[in-house]
Every structure is written in C-alpha cells, then in structure tokens.
Write a structure and sequence with these properties.
With 344 residues, the protein is mainly beta. It has one helix spanning 313-343, and strands at residues 2-5, 8-13, 26-32, 37-43, 57-61, 64-69, 82-86, 91-96, 100-102, 106-115, 124-129, 134-141, 145-149, 152-158, 165-175, 182-189, 196-205, 209-211, 216-219, 227-232, 237-243, 254-256, 265-271, 279-289, 294-304.
Length: 344
C-alpha cells in the first residue's frame, strides 16, 4: 500500500518481520528533498505482534498518517484488526536571519521547527536553499544531519517530541553580492501539506566611511585650502561635520558641499577660522546610513601666529646703539688727548 501527500510518501510493508515477530509489519516514510526521494523513518506499532500485518493499508494527510493492521488481536478477538494514527502534530517553523550584512563576510540563518501537538511527529526534513548572491560555507542541525547538494541544504531532523519538542537547522553563507543587493532567504518543511515555509530578506551593506581628509596648517589671516574627500555607504546617507574648537572654527565656519548623501560621492569642505584666532582644531566628518551603521574621519587644522617682522623697529634700535657707541669712543679719545697736554 502507498499514500502520497505533498512532498511526503508512505509505503506499507505488512509482511515485514519486526524483531522476532514475523509478519508484524511496518511502514516507511519518504520525503522529497529537492534532489530526489529519500527514506526518513520507519513506523511500527508500539504494541505490535506477529501476524498483525501492520501497513496493509496506509493513508496520509499532511503530517498525519493512518496505518491499518487488519489481523491485530484485540482482547481475545483474533484478527479483529486495529488502526494506528501517527503525527497528530501542530508544527511551527520560524526563520531567523540578520536584516543587514556587509559584503564579503559570513552570516548565519537559523530555521527553528517546533511541535506543539500532543503527539510525536513523523520524521521531518527542513530545506534551506542557498540564496543568490551568496556562497555556501557550512550547515548543521541540533539533531539529525544536514547535507548540501546543488545549492540546496536538506536537514533531516527525525521525529520531534510532543508538547514543545523542537530542533533547529542552521546554514552559514558568505556574501558575494555587492552593496545594495537584497538577499532572499527561505526555509521550508518537506513533510507538510501545504508546504510549511518561511522567508526573509537580508540587505548587503557597505560599511559607511569617509576617506581623503588631510591635516592643514596656515598662518593667521591666510585662507584654509578646502578639504576634498569621498563618502561610501549603502542607501540614503547622512553626513555631519563637527569642530573640537569652536572658538577657532565654529560650526558656521564649516561649509559642506551638496550631494554628499550617496555612495561614492566626491565632496568638499570649506573651513573659515575666526579672524585673528590661533590654535588647533580637530574637524570630524561623520556619515551614517539608514541601518544605523556609522563611519568617520578627522583632520587637524593648525592656525599659527604671524612671525616677527625682519625690518623696522629692531633694525632702528641697532642703529641707535651703534651711534651712541661711536659718540662715546670720540669723547673718550678727546679726554685722553687733553690729559697728555697737561702732563707735558
């Protein structure tokens, strides 16, 4: 006997020997993993006996299976027969993935399957396709095992216990898509009708950054050369500028060019120090994207005082000093000449 429902099939084997019980019977569950059908579990009656012929008839609807054992002895009634229900389950599937991830790094998606029903589930398989724009790294499960074939990961979890039994499947991927790409994540349960599935998206981001700023030094009264720099980031960007020394460089003395809110923008910053002020100020340009990621770069502006003049006052003083020295020498010579006349 055979029953098919969605991506699951059950085949009865009523003549199967279980332990030492000839013809007790069994049934086998198969799941379509995306790359072919594979056996996931064997079902037998917990109170089975020889000659029951369990599996002579099978029926399947979603995750609930019904098995007939027409020759089962009930009480003292030989061959009265019985039916067995498997998989009275209430399954819930959730998929956890990051909302953003940077290009070139790894991220992990986790599918959590929970059985809230009052009966243990049949063997279950979770399917995790590898999204476009990523490359497969590894996968694992908290019970059972996972394998990857042709871009699809199948995790065979086996049965989940009733009343909250759960298992999770994880897939780790490397991001190969450029910034701005939206990755489509997906997880599906093979043993359900309709197929139980969840989806999510992850946006590939470029970490915001500011590059190209250089330190500057001028003499008071000189113009400060405009700073040229580049902004990188994903989506709508917010750029701000701040000075560590508003006495020297106030906010009104910082003029940012327009169009600095997109990835790859080439920007300029005009700096106007307060006239007559000297000192240093650290100017920081910061950028933030719509995902809350931030980046910044700073430069130091130094405004120096004017050096002393090389002409005028200091030269005049030197000339006067030399003139006075000359007068003193002449007077001294005359005094000596007068003394010699008196002695002669």
């Amino acid at each position: 006997s055979v029953a098919l429902s969605g991506m699951t099939a059950i085949m009865g084997a009523p003549d199967h020997k279980v332990g030492s019980n000839a013809d007790q019977g069994a049934a086998y569950v198969y799941a379509d993993t995306g790359s072919g059908w594979s056996q996931t579990t064997e079902l037998t009656a917990s109170d089975g006996a020889a000659n029951d012929m369990f599996g002579s008839s099978v029926a399947l609807s979603g995750a609930i299976a019904l098995m007939g054992a027409p020759l089962r002895t009930v009480g003292g009634n030989t061959d009265q027969g019985a039916a067995y229900i498997f998989g009275n389950t209430d399954l819930n599937l959730t998929l956890n993935t990051p909302s953003t991830v940077s290009h070139g790094v790894d991220y992990t998606g986790q599918a959590i399957l929970t059985n809230n029903g009052n009966s243990a589930s049949p063997a279950l398989s979770v399917i995790l396709p590898v999204p476009g724009g990523t490359s497969y790294v590894t996968s694992s499960a908290t019970q059972g095992s996972c394998n990857q074939v042709s871009g699809t990961v199948t995790c065979n979890l086996g049965s989940l216990a009733a009343n909250g039994g759960s298992a999770s499947s994880s897939i780790t991927l490397e991001v190969t898509a450029p910034g701005g790409t939206v990755l489509s994540n997906h997880a599906g349960l093979a043993l359900s009708t309709p197929v139980l599935s969840q989806g999510s998206t992850t946006t590939v981001t470029v970490p915001p950054a500011v590059t190209g700023l250089v330190n500057a030094s001028v003499t008071v009264g000189q113009s400060v050369p405009a700073e040229s720099f580049t902004i990188v980031g994903t989506g709508a960007l917010t750029v701000s500028v701040a000075s560590s020394n508003p006495t020297l460089v106030p906010h009104t003395g910082l003029d940012l060019s327009s169009g600095c809110d997109t990835n790859g923008a080439s920007c300029t910053l005009a700096i106007i120090p307060v006239p007559g002020e000297v000192g240093t100020a650290t100017v920081t340009v910061a950028v933030q994207d719509g995902y809350g990621q931030k980046g910044s770069e700073s430069f130091v502006l130094t405004v120096k005082a004017k050096p002393p003049s090389s002409g005028g006052g200091s030269g005049g003083v030197g000339f006067l000093m030399l003139a006075w020295l000359g007068v003193a020498v002449v007077l001294r010579r005359r005094m000596r000449a007068g003394g010699d006349l008196q002695q002669g």
